[in-house]
Amino acid sequence: MYKNTKPQAAVWRVLPLIQGFPAVGYVDKAGANSGDICQVGVGVADDLSFGATLQLSLARKGSADPCDLAARVADMVVTNLRQKAGS
């Protein structure tokens, strides 16, 4: 993920682990000026990751960090994946 995505990102933040999995928040160059969008990538295996993208509503723009909120969404996804996997 780092190798392919980081060079194309205008914003790149290593996030705290999400349920033990490494995560990064990033904004590609096309969305860098909007300040209302963030993508979070979570590595769940050496060769597998998933992404969660969040765009703030007009009411939340400027008052919330989209990467923090996208990380919360990614955490919910990991919880669901663990429940479906039975672990």
From TrEMBL:
<protein>
    <submittedName>
        <fullName>Uncharacterized protein</fullName>
    </submittedName>
</protein>
<dbReference type="InterPro" id="IPR024520">
    <property type="entry name" value="DUF3558"/>
</dbReference>
<dbReference type="Pfam" id="PF12079">
    <property type="entry name" value="DUF3558"/>
</dbReference>
